[in-house]
């Protein structure tokens, strides 16, 4: 069965996934205004006979540590068919915006070990790990270099667990930055504009073999 036929799809991560969603039960904005809502809308508009149950479990400011604390409640208890995880941006960012607060820093060894443990607990039929990213075209920038490193760590977790990896930095944002200024994609280089969110949605759907000509 094609992955796109799966009905229960869960996205978990930080503020990029959250997309200003409401946590109020039955609120109309439970999917937020970002890539999760775009994916749901495109899937449902293209395959109206399917009834996709899409869940957004993104929470702003989260690191891999925060995901670990809520994994049972937000992932294991939901039992999704497809699970998408995007984490790592804040694990890197805290090392730059809070350099003296060492207790908030998540270093590579902890990142990999925690990530692998979370993935191994999940019973989802298919799991996708999405790389963290930084909207900075200068690859020598210190934060861009560290973000790329955490993307490589994410890829290593996916490979060791034999699951799918989507490199949003290389597949989505690096090509986008060739035609658009960095700030057109994300003014703070982290939180994408609607163009950036649509680019993420497009990349994910392509990995699901979404038929754009339907």
From TrEMBL:
GO molecular function terms noted in the UniProt entry: phosphatidylcholine lysophospholipase activity
CDD domains per record: SGNH_hydrolase_like_2
Sections of the chain in a coiled coil: none
Residue spans crossing the bilayer: none
InterPro entries tied to this protein: Ester_Hydrolysis_Enzymes (IPR051532), SGNH_hydro (IPR013830), SGNH_hydro_sf (IPR036514)
Domain spans labelled SGNH hydrolase-type esterase: 11-197
Domain of life of the organism encoding this protein: Bacteria
UniProt cross-references to PANTHER family, sorted A to Z: SGNH HYDROLASE-TYPE ESTERASE DOMAIN-CONTAINING PROTEIN, THIOESTERASE 1/PROTEASE 1/LYSOPHOSPHOLIPASE L1
This protein's name: Esterase
Annotated source species: Shouchella lehensis G1
């Amino acid at each position: 069965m094609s992955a796109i036929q799966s009905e229960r799809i869960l996205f978990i991560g930080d503020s990029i996934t959250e997309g200003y969603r409401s946590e109020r039960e039955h609120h109309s904005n439970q999917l937020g205004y970002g890539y999760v809502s775009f994916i749901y809308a495109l899937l449902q508009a293209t395959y109206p006979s399917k009834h996709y149950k899409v869940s957004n479990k993104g929470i702003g400011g989260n690191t891999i540590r925060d995901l670990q604390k809520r994994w049972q409640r937000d992932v294991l208890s939901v039992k999704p068919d497809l699970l998408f995880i995007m984490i790592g941006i804040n694990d890197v960012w805290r090392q730059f915006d809070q350099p003296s607060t060492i207790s908030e820093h998540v270093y590579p060894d902890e990142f990999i070990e925690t990530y692998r443990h979370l993935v191994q607990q999940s019973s989802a039929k298919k799991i996708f790990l999405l790389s963290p990213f930084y909207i900075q075209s200068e690859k020598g920038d210190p934060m861009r270099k560290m973000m790329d490193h955490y993307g490589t760590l994410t890829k290593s977790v996916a490979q060791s667990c034999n699951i799918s990896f989507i490199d949003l930095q290389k597949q989505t944002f690096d090509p986008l930055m060739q035609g658009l200024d960095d700030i057109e994609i994300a003014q703070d280089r982290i939180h994408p504009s609607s163009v950036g969110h649509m680019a993420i949605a497009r990349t994910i759907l392509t990995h699901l073999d979404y038929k754009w000509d339907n």
